[in-house]
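Tokens as discussed.
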């Protein structure tokens, strides 16, 4: 049984990812300029997307937080994912997200991220949430800044991607104290 709650915002529903999201996820997972920015290889078949969704569902069942589908309320369409992972000793976690490019530039992931941070700090009682972003991923850096994360440093050559490329990784963090001050 998953422990992921449904979270609702003005424009979005964040809910457990499902096999029914297959087509919607494939739509963006196959694009060459989406996954690599988040460190994963673009999908080459719908079966690959199915396997990833199955893996997410298994992760969610384990209960160490997990992957939410981002659903556009108006269209009822799954348009991305947002996750909390590396849930260390129940005191901190990392955040990750990806959005279908048709929805970029509307502040969607910031809206979803605010709901996830509220859940992380107010419900789970975390002390810290981290994000690791490639130095040239301007879009994601802006998301972190808008969510109130602080840039803590750069892990030089800190990320080896699936394709062998090595990236400098910006480390962002937000603590429970930062969160209380801001929200
Ligand atoms: C990172 C990502 C989730 C941002 O989501 P989003 O909801 O579009 O974010 P925002 O609307 O807040 O826009 C963030 C910045 O992207 C830029 N941007 C806006 N629209 C854009 C577009 N259509 N194309 C490219 N960049 C755009 C702007 O600089 C914006 O900052 P601003 O609000 O200060 O102008 C999304 O770009 C994405 O899925 N990227 C690929 C996967 C990825 O990088 N994941 C994160 C890994 S750490």
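Sequence:
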């Amino acid at each position: 049984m998953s422990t992921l709650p449904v979270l609702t915002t003005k424009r979005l529903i964040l809910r457990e990812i499902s096999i029914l999201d297959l087509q919607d996820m494939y739509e963006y997972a196959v694009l060459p300029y989406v996954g690599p920015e988040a460190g994963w290889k673009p999908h080459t078949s719908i079966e690959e997307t199915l396997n990833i969704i199955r893996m997410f569902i298994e992760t969610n069942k384990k209960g160490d937080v997990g992957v939410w589908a981002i659903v556009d309320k108006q269209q009822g369409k799954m348009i991305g994912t947002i996750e909390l992972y590396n849930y260390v000793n129940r005191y901190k976690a990392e955040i990750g997200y990806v959005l279908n490019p048709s929805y970029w530039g509307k502040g969607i992931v910031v809206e979803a991220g605010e709901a996830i941070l509220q859940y992380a700090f107010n419900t789970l009682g975390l002390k810290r949430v981290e994000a690791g972003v490639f130095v040239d991923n301007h879009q994601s850096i802006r998301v972190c800044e808008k969510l109130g994360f602080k840039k803590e440093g750069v892990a030089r050559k800190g990320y080896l991607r699936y394709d062998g490329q090595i990236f400098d990784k910006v480390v962002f963090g937000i603590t429970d104290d930062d969160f209380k001050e801001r929200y």
